[in-house]
Amino acid sequence: MFEAIAFYLFAFLTIAMFYITVTTSQALYALSALAAGMIFISAFFFILGADFLGAIQIIVYTGAVMALYAFGMMFFDTTRAVKEKQGNKFIIVGMSAIAAVLIVAIFAAPMLSTNITAFYPSVADIGNTQEVGMVLFTKYLIPFELAAVMLLVAMVAGIVLAGKQMDNSLTLEDDTNKKVLS
Amino acid sequence: MEKYLYIALFAPLVSSLFSALFTATPKKTFTGIIASLLIFSAFVSSSILLMHILGGGEPVHVEMMTWMATGDLYIPFGFVVDEISVTMMMVVTLVSTIVHIYSIGYMDHDKGFNRFFSYLSAFVFSMMILVMSDNYAGLFIGWEGVGLCSWLLIGFWFHKESATWAANEAFIMNRIADLGMLVGIFLVYWNTGTLQYDGAFEAFATLDITTLSWIGIFLFIGAMGKSAQFPLHTWLADAMEGPTPVSALIHAATMVTAGVYLVVRSNELYSLIPDVGLFIASLGAFVAIFAASMALVNRDMKRVVAYSTLSQLGYMFAAAGLGAYWVALFHLMAHAFFKALLFLGAGNVMHAMDGELDPFKMGGLKKVMKWSYIMMTIASVALAGIFPLAGFFSKDTILEAAFAEHHFVIYSVLLFTAGLTAFYSFRLTALIFEGEERYKLFGFHPHEAYKFMLVGMSPLLILAIIAGAFRTTFFGMVEEALSAIEYHIHSEVTLWVMTIGTQAFVVLAIVYAYKKYNNSGITVPDGTGKMENSFMYKLLINQYYIPYAYETYLVTPYRELSDIFWTHIDMKIVDASVDGIAGIVYNTGEKTSKMQNGNLSTMLQLMVVGMLGLLSLAVVFGLAVRYSDGILAILSGLGV
Amino acid sequence: MMEIGLNHYLILSTILFAIGLVGVMRRKNLLLLFFATEILLNSVNIAFAAISHYYGDLTGQMFAFFVIAIAASEVAVGLGLLIVWYKRHGNINLDNLASMKG
Questions:
Q1: What are the chain B neighbours of C97 within 8 Å (beta carbons)?
Q2: Which residue from C21, C22, C53 is facing A48, i.e. has the nearest CB?
Q3: What's the average model confidence in pLDDT over B52-59?
Q4: Cα B18 to the chain's mean position, in Å?
Q5: Out of 3.40.50.720, 3.40.50.740, 3.10.310.10, 1.10.287.3510, which CATH number does the structure's domain C7-95 have?
Q6: Do the domain assignments include residue A43?
């Protein structure tokens, strides 16, 4: 029963937060609502017993990604309300609704089949984190390493794109270094 | 022998193509000379073939190549030279050669000299195909070909609106009749399975009378158009807009006789349906007197001769309708000679008088144009049917045939027409050549035609005189092919009375004509004379108001109808729909070009649209797979 | 209704996905467009985790894990590009980015 209450509560909150994100005209409100939505989604992960994933969601998504967005927002002039020329509202909402219905229909199909077996079945007694670790570093090692490389590349790209006056080194400011540089 | 067939057939084509090379250049005499030489070679080949057939040789039959071989239909390009076609070939090539030679002089000052010979030779080629073909389809090709060349030649001086109008009238009237002919040909094929003459004729014996009657009627409708029988006759008189050699060749000797040829060729069909034959004969007799009556008062020289042709065609059809096919063919041959001679003589007169056609404005020309006078008079005598010239033997045989078959009405009509023929022919010659020289009042300076033209016309003169002698030879040749019979009047006395009576009647008519038109009191009628205002005169000179009736009741409403169709249907519906389709495509392009406005938001929306499409497909296919058994059951129930 | 099954989670995921679509189609400010993209990714994560839970398979969680990693790097690069664009043009309104027109 608790599960049901928690599910419906967090579902309602998540939907509300995300609705605010897509409809508000104030960028700050959108950012805050997005962050809140992320937190509530991690609640879902905890309900589902995916502890590691829930923790990662809070740390990476809400912590890192939203912080990055917040820094970005400081950069752009977002204090004034975003003026947007609206496209046809009915088409947009209508298309989304149709998409939702179709996806649900598609999701319903596998429910009716009974042939689904688990590739990597979870073992009951050890904790979720340990299980994730075991699978991640054995079966999913290569994607893990590639993800690491990708993150490195993204980091370098971010620095290069956003940095300014990188021709001058900040650590080699004194005269001796100037001689080296010239 | 086959090579003579091919020479006779294709020499005119070579001549036409050769002259066609020079149509855009000014007059070159050698085109005329070479054209004449090539046609002459065709004549020589035809003569050799004639000798061959006369000497008892087998008809020459070649199949050049296959035209259509689809399913059960087999039509080859086949040619046959038998008794009937060799007669026609000889007539056509002889008159064509003479006309070609004559045209070298007649079209002397014309800019379209080379073009004329090209058209003329093309006509000869089409006519040869018509007479030499051994199946109805080949006949039809030639039929259409002569119609086309006739149109080209009548409208030769295409800058004259009257000429183009006359050409269109001729072609369209022919086309209307061709519809009947096509239906006839379809019926032949449908009932007999073949269009070859021999195959079809064999099969005709097994068909019932109704079918045969319909076939005969429809084929005769085609003949009516080509040979200008009533009511499709108005084009022949108007066709005189073309140059005179054209009239001589086409409208005297060859094209208009194609209808007679068709009936004679299909004699095995028509002998099975004597009722249709009687109708043809009656129509022929009617046309004979109808045309002769219109020629009595006409003031256009060439038109008089044209009506005379129409009248003689009526004679030929009367003969063919009565079953006397060989007589029709013989009269065709003789008529070709003297009628062509008449036309060419008239051409000389017209040339001398700078294109003037009213015989009342001429007169006394025999002093200046002696040879033309002699030729035209002798041709008129032959036309009237005076013994011993050619016309007597052919026309009198027709009268005998009508009498012997006990068709007395037709006989009397034809007899009376003979008198009328003599009258108007000599009215014409008297007005033109005899009497006072009225032309001097109008300032004309006539002169005789070139010597070589006169020399070229001389074979026709000789043949017009002596052709009667060939009657027995001709009879012997076609006896078997046309199941010909000599007509015997039962008693000798009747025969002599008939012959002498006919001759006397004709001579009386000639004398009367001379008396009326050879005196010195002839003036140009100017619309005030008593006779001119009489009802009969007005009726005849307006050709019984038939052209007027056609114009008012057929042509004008049809033009209005076409106009309505053009403005309301063609432009508003057809054009609009085509433009509409183009408009739709254009507007769709313009509207969808907004897809490419470079706006990211639009692209994202379109992406979602695409995603929806794919999702729908996924759902549909999933459902199809899930319920595939049920779907198969439904589809098989529907019969797919 | 009381018993939360897989269907509930999937329907929730679908609703969130639809909201994300609305945002993607509607937003004209690039930064807010990125927010909507985040919503899309998160909804998918919920779906993965739910399926993983109800079928006892860890594959779903692995997938969600990698999605998070990729989303993070995507944000970094995207914001970097956005900064460059902002420096060049002074605004980040979508309607001004029409150089691909035609």
A1: 598-600
A2: C53
A3: 84
A4: 25
A5: 1.10.287.3510
A6: yes
Same structural domain for residues A75 and A144? Answer: no
User: Is residue A60 assigned to a domain?
Assistant: yes
Residue A128 maps to a domain: no
| Residue A174 pLDDT class (50, 70, 90 cuts) | low
Chain A residues close to C40, C-beta within 8 Å: none
Give the tens place of pLDDT for each residue, B534-570: 788 888 888 888 888 888 888 899 999 999 888 888 8
C interface with B, Cβ–Cβ < 8 A, is 21, 24-28, 33, 94-95, 97-102
Q: Is B164 exposed, middle or buried (0-12, 13-18, 19+ CB in 10 A)?
A: middle
* pLDDT beyond 70 at B62: yes
**A32 vs C: CB within 8 A:** no
- Number of structural domains (chain A) is 2
CB contact under 8 A, A45 and C76: no
Residue B10, both tokens: 């294709």
pLDDT in tens, B211-264: 899 999 999 998 988 888 888 888 888 888 888 999 888 877 777 789 899 999
User: In this structure, is the dihedral angle defined by the CA atoms of residues B107, B112, B117 and B122, taken in order, positive or negative?
Assistant: negative
Query: pTM of the predicted model, to two decimals?
Result: 0.71
A62, A80, A98 - which closes a domain: A80
In this prediction, residue B100 carries a pLDDT of: 92
In C, minimum Cα distance to B594 occurs at C102
Main-chain dihedrals φ then ψ at residue B70, nearest 5 degrees: -125, 120
B596 inside 8 A of chain C by CB: yes
B499-503's contacts with Cβ under 8 Å and 24+ in sequence apart are B499/B396, B502/B385, B502/B396, B502/B399, B502/B415, B502/B418, B503/B385, B503/B386, B503/B387, B503/B392
A:B CB pairs within 8 Å? 27
**Residue spans per domain, chain C:** 7-95
Q: How far is C33 from chain B (nearest CA, A)?
A: 9
Chain C touched by B602 (CB under 8 Å): no
Residue where a domain stops, chosen among A30, A51, A80:
A80
Total Cβ atoms within 10 A of residue A134:
14
On whether any CB of chain A is under 8 Å from the CB of B608, the answer is yes
- Does the distance separating the beta carbons of B597 and C28 come in below 8 Å? no
Give pLDDT, residue A124: 65
Backbone φ and ψ for A122, nearest 5 degrees, come out as -80, 140
Q: What is the CATH number of the domain that holds A27?
A: 1.20.120.1200
Lowest mean pLDDT among A19-28, B144-153, B626-635: B626-635
Count of beta carbons in the 10 Å neighbourhood of residue C36? 23
Q: What's the domain range around A178?
A: 140-182
CB pairs under 8 A between B and C: 29
The answer as to whether A64 is a domain residue is yes
Predicted local confidence at residue A180, as pLDDT: 54
